Backbone:
């Protein structure tokens, strides 16, 4: 490269580095989703443009109800996760110092290094008719016979909240970490109650963490497959299950593509609304 | 609320019991999975039939322990192979991406960065099916036009690797770029002043500095690939990686051998997690 100028060399480096990135994004992200779009608006018989697969979605109640149900339950799961995680994140970020902080934080993280399948399996052992909680209730006399706790919407909700907890705790801890204790002290010195301080000082400071946590948890719930299928059973009616059925079981790829795009539109829309409402940028929130 | 502000005793005790309940909630499913792997019964549930290690080591009668269950052992090998290939690919591309975003300015950089982050918000199932559709279209085209059968573009292990690589690369890029951002560039300039070529400076100074982040990213990537279900499930052919094999058994209802393999997975991922946390502390 001796006879190349520094500038030309820099240019060459730029192009060499752009290549893997470009190939990856183009071949594995952009073109596949574009293909999905094409599939969803093409008639498989004659290759003509058609809206029938979207029409099918809006006219078949099972489809759009499953879609709505998935969206509503994911939003609910996100809110619940936030409420449950916030006190814990606050404790880790503000009440603990040094070594104990690291240990408690690691205690939060480690369960999530274990496969989601294993964690869901654990909930099945706890909740099923012959499971731990059912037996405990019978033993303690609170229930007369075996209790089936699996296969309800509440079980799905429990599984969703559990499996996405970490993704709420981590961003919350990192934003709360940066909140200076003296602001909280000042709030109390000025006569604020616990509630005042949380509402006026802690939550406004934590907004970036809350937004990124909520976005990730929402996306994970919406795209979750294992939890609804295993904890919700046959009637779990989750939209990703519909997509799987169309693609793999029924081999109706056109319908499946339309479903996939609808899911993508829904998730982008809600993420966009969340960012707009809180005045955050996508790059800052995710990166 | 914070240590310097005293709270009423009632508030403190409620707060503390909440935290205890939270950690029980986190640990409960993992603990029962582990406990029932030692249950001497054909099902991972009550009644408790006594303590046994058969579900790990037995090779006779109707009980097949995990170390003799060739189907599950084979799928572990398969998953490990997929994870290694995915990790090597993802780390290589992620290093390039990190240098690109930290060292270069070019038109459209902000847009490319958004695209890079995009795989994080695409549901895994969708990533799987879109790659399935796209690769099948290519394979169909080659078959119809050139009469060439491109087997690797049909559902199977290659597609699984491609699908996992598509989103794991983003995560690795973020981890490596975060460390590259903290690098003191005068060190590289010193190497250049001492007569090193730019590439030599990068390989002798910058890459060693990035090593903790690269190892960390590799651990995360390995685990994410090994444990991935959503994308993998859409792209598998006839060979089932571990998560898919476990899912099938879970649906049929399995013996506690499933608990035994879960215990091994917990030990493995716990160990990797500790290594990763320990390394982050050092750097």
Residues:
């Amino acid at each position: 490269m001796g006879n190349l100028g520094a500038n030309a060399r820099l240019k060459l480096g730029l192009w060499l580095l752009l290549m893997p990135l470009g190939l990856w994004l183009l071949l594995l992200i952009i073109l596949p989703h574009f293909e999905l779009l094409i599939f969803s608006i093409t008639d498989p018989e004659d290759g003509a443009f058609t809206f029938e697969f979207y029409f099918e979605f809006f006219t078949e109640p099972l489809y759009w109800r499953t879609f709505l149900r998935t969206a509503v339950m994911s939003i609910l799961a996100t809110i619940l996760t936030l409420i449950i995680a916030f006190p814990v994140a606050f404790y880790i970020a503000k009440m603990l110092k040094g070594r104990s902080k690291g240990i408690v934080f690691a205690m939060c993280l480690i369960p999530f290094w274990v496969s989601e399948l294993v964690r869901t399996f654990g909930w099945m052992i706890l909740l099923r008719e012959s499971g731990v909680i059912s037996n405990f209730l019978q033993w303690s006399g609170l229930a007369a016979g075996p209790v089936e706790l699996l296969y309800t919407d509440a079980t799905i909700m429990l599984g969703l909240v559990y499996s996405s907890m970490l993704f709420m705790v981590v961003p919350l801890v990192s934003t709360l970490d940066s909140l200076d204790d003296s602001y909280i002290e000042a709030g109390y010195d000025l006569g604020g109650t616990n509630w005042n301080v949380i509402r006026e000082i802690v939550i406004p400071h934590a907004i970036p963490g809350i937004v990124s946590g909520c976005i990730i948890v929402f996306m994970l719930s919406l795209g979750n497959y294992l939890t609804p299928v295993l904890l919700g059973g046959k009637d779990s009616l989750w939209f990703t299950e519909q997509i799987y059925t169309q693609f793999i079981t029924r081999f109706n790829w056109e319908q499946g593509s339309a479903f996939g795009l609808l899911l993508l539109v829904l998730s982008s829309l809600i993420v966009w609304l969340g960012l707009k409402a809180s005045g955050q940028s996508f790059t800052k929130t995710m990166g | 609320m914070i240590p310097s502000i005293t709270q009423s005793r009632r508030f403190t005790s409620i707060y503390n019991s909440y935290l205890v309940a939270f950690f029980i909630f986190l640990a409960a499913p993992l603990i029962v999975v582990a406990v029932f792997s030692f249950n001497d019964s054909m099902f991972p549930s009550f009644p408790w039939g006594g303590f046994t290690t058969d579900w790990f080591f037995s090779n006779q009668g109707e009980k097949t322990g995990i170390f003799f269950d060739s189907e599950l052992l084979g799928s572990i090998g398969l998953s490990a192979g997929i994870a290694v290939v995915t990790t090597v690919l993802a780390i290589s591309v992620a290093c390039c991406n990190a240098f690109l975003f930290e060292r270069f300015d070019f038109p459209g950089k902000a847009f490319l960065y958004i695209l890079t982050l995009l795989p994080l918000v695409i549901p895994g199932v969708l990533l799987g099916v879109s790659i399935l559709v796209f690769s099948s279209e290519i394979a169909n085209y080659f078959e119809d036009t050139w009469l060439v059968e491109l087997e690797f573009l049909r559902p199977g292990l290659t597609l699984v690797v491609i699908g996992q690589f598509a989103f794991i690369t983003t995560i690795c890029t973020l981890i490596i770029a975060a460390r590259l951002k903290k690098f003191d560039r005068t060190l590289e300039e010193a190497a250049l002043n001492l007569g090193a070529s730019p590439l030599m400076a990068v390989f002798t100074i910058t890459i060693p500095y990035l090593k903790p982040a690269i190892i960390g990213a590799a651990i995360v990537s390995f685990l994410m690939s090994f444990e991935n279900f959503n994308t993998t499930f859409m792209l598998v052919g006839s060979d089932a990686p571990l998560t898919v094999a476990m899912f099938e058994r879970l649906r049929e209802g399995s013996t506690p051998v499933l608990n035994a393999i879960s215990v091994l997975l917990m030990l493995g991922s716990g160990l990797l997690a500790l290594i990763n946390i320990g390394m982050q502390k050092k750097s």
Notes: Residues 69-252 of chain B form a domain with the MetI-like fold fold (CATH 1.10.3720.10). The CA atoms of residues 147 and 161 of chain B lie 25 Å apart. Chain B touches chain A through 89 residues (CB under 8 Å). Residues 70-103 of chain B form the longest helix (34 residues).
